[in-house]
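Quick start: what a row looks like.
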Amino acid sequence: MEIIDRVKQLCSEKGIALYTLESALGFGNGSLAKTKNMSADRLYAIANYFHVSMEYIMTGSDNTTSQKEEKSELSEKELEIYKEKERVLKELNIANQELLEIYQKIGTCQTRKDVLEERLRDLDNQLTELKKDDFTLDFSIFKE
């Protein structure tokens, strides 16, 4: 049995849908079903949510004793920290995406500038060939 199958079974036993679990843990909708290799952080969050061991999630067997009430309280706090971490990671991912888009625009502008400069050099060469030496272009505007 695959990890996702055990997670689905735990959801079924608890009477919740997979997307409800994803929402409760701050995962993207459909992300669990699409994941082939689940990260330790996600396994940990799922195990804590269902009060089972990570070993049970991964293998289907549990050699540890059931978690105590104190452990559950700690797990709730750890789950909150995990959710906050996921939120911050999402924000960083969005910021990174925005920076990438800006970088791509800058690169496009630089490419356009280079093409324009090359065209102007070609025109200058053509004018020189036509012996119109009195007309020259000032390329200093392109220097940074």
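That is the whole record. The chain has six helices and no strands. Residues 65-70 have pLDDT under 50 and may be disordered.
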